[in-house]
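task queued by scheduler; priority normal; single chain, no ligands, no partner chains; default sampling; output format set to structure tokens
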Amino acid sequence: MGSTGPSTWLAPRSGSLDLSGRTRAGSIVLRALGIDFGDKRIGLAVCDDAGRLAVPFELVKRVGDRSVEHGRILALATEVTARYLVVGIPLNLDGSIGPVARAVQSEVRGLRKRIQREGLDLTVVEHDERLSTVEAHRGLARGGVSTRDRRELVDASAAAVILQAWLEAQPPDGRRQLPSIE
């Protein structure tokens, strides 16, 4: 997998995954982008038009500048016509908020401020991501991905696990739940 600047593509821009934000009949789809904030990379996942399936989408490499990193996330959210950003919060196994979760929540606050400042129509949702990275590693291993390659792919795969869990938690009537982890 080659790098294209601060991010790397994981999902195709065409083919079975329509990223246009419109159904064949032309109606707008409310798409969600899953986010896994890692130390070295930010994993992103996107869901299909029906809001049923999350797939790894892109890796944004950490460059030490949140403004640049958040700008890339927001540009991709706009590109795929996302309405929701579903951010994984790494709670402790007992459900408590530890230092890593606090750091992610701090980053989420910064992202929300930027969204508001730029007047974007995006809703940021925090979702419990306990064990998402473990599940992502297992899924990649089952798929035959080498240990070395898994390191590069795990953040986007974890974002897909987080987004899929959020999608599955949504009620069948299509009303989105917008809980926040406090």
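post-processing summary
- The first helix runs from residue 66 to 79.
- The beta strands are 7-9, 31-37, 41-47, 54-61, 82-89, 123-128.
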